[in-house]
Amino acid sequence: MRRMDGMKWFKPIPCDNTVKDPLVCDFDSFEEHGFNEEDFRSGQKIGHWNKNIFMQAKKKKNDGDPDDALQNYRMIPIYSERLIQELNKKDITGIQYLPIKIMRPNNICLSGFCIANFLNYVDAFDYERSVYDRFSNDFPNPNVRGEIAGILRYVLKEAKLKDMDVIRLKEYNQSFFVSERFKKIFEHNKFTGYSFKEVELV
Fold first, then answer.
1. Is there a smaller number of Cβ atoms within 10 Å at the N or the C end of the chain?
2. 2 assigned to some structural domain
């Protein structure tokens, strides 16, 4: 179902619509600076950021041209300077940009990249209509028993998305979604690194 105004939302598909020979970061310095990937999935603004934090394509086979949505082994959203400029120009809000050094195997540094820390942390997941799996009650890690383990089909609550262009789901914070406006900016400017799959709204 969709309202008459045609509101649409999409799940970005990382590592798709890429350059021919993409750069893929397979190493980083997060831990030595006190960060891990969960810090960028919490919906919280990050203070005391260290601009010396880097990600690197250490393996020569992963050297190449960087996508605007940079490929990396942690699957963290990392955006190019030109993508960030365009999103800012079009007033796409709800993102904290954290400057990060991107390095080739020969230690040459690529400038202008930032982690996109999504701050709109929304409980928009429709449990009744979505299709998903949960961790079993006897799963080895007791901290995740009963939690969502994976999602086969997303259905989002449209009312929770009002006046936003990017969100991360509270119920399953590995997943983030963007508005049709974001998608159009990305595609119109021929940015690379994402394709988009429409999700159902109710």
1. N
2. no
